[in-house]
## 1
Amino acid sequence: MNLGFQELLVIFLVILLVFGPKKLPQLAQALGKAVREFRNATREIEESIKEIERSVDLEEKPTPPPPPSSSSGTQES
């Protein structure tokens, strides 16, 4: 969604008409807090997903096979 300058100006003017100049700073502050909280929540979710991926990767790594025994092929009875 790419908004140009004219579209942003129209949106700003509509908001100014609806809420008035006295409420604009409060609205901007609330919007800023909401965006900040959304970013923090998104970051926490991404970190959780990466942590889960790391733990799954560690569980899925195959264990190396045991080294071959150094017997010479003769069996003792």
## 2
Amino acid sequence: MVSWIQGFFNGMNVMRASSGKLAVEPPNGQAMNEFIDRYCSGKPKSSILDASIELYVSTERKTGR
């Protein structure tokens, strides 16, 4: 799962770069797993894509990019 989310971050960062924005650095594997576990526990009908989008957006907000 971590490698899929890292690939998702890479894809999102390619899209950001095309509009001149800086890349969003993904959290480490443990932090990713913890976030996904919390997200999915609270929203059990959500997909890994939903959780990955939320992780990306929240990481983007934290870094101010």
